[in-house]
Amino acid sequence: MIIKEYKVINNCTCEEYQVAQLYTVAEASKDETGGGEGVEVIKNEPYVNDESKGQYTYKIYHLSSKVPAIIRLVAPNGSLELYEEAWNAFPHCKTVLTNGYMKENFKLVTETMHVDNSRGEIENALNIPKDLLEKRKCVIIDIANDCIEKKDYREDQDPTLYHSEKTGRGPLKGDWIKTVTPVMTCYKLVTVEFKWFGMQSKIESFIQSTMQSLFTKFHRQLFCCTDKWFGMTMDDIRAFEDKTKDDLDESRSNPPVQEF
Prior knowledge:
Elements: E1 2-10, H1 14-31, E2 38-48, E3 53-62, H2 69-74, E4 81-89, E5 92-99, E6 106-116, H3 130-135, E7 137-141, H4 176-179, E8 184-194, H5 200-224, H6 226-229, H7 234-253
Helix pairs in contact: 1-5, 1-7
GO cellular component, one term: cytoplasm
Protein name: 17713_t:CDS:1
GO molecular function: phosphatidylcholine binding; phosphatidylcholine transporter activity; phosphatidylinositol binding; phosphatidylinositol transfer activity
């Protein structure tokens, strides 16, 4: 099992981030959906239990052609759907990703704490026990200066170029993490278990690397669409999510484009 904590610093407040994150998730889902694959939203509803209350979502990712070739080689046809359950009790959130074929042999858990006026300096924001602290490795994610793959680069999602007309924020240059206001940090503890003889270490390392890349790209997109989500209320976001679900269902049902 590999445990890493990713500290993602953002040029916004926690209150703003709650809206921005939901907006960006919905937009990113559209980019990944179409031709029979993509994101299927099964549930998106309030929840209450003994520990917390918030918003519960259950999604299925139909992504067989998008997973790494090494996983496609070992997984049988039809087994590449991923199931995501998320409990959003902001500022604390938990997401669990599983696979129906691997069952208890695969689990990817992400726990997040969102902290205002933080620049990634908190040592144990999620109050994890000592035994996990000893295994955990921390990674600071700088959305402006960290390298991303050439194929993932988009000029309209480059924080070093983006300027928000509504807020005056950006571009993010140099040591922006030390100087920008407002500022907040997402502390994301990611635990990966992939029990497959002979491949566990390699796959777990690959998944952690993929998660770091996903967090970087996602938060670049979040910042660079500030003028789209800034000023939205939670009621606006819920209506936007409902519309996005309908769009995803329609897009996923369309046949894939044939290439010749």
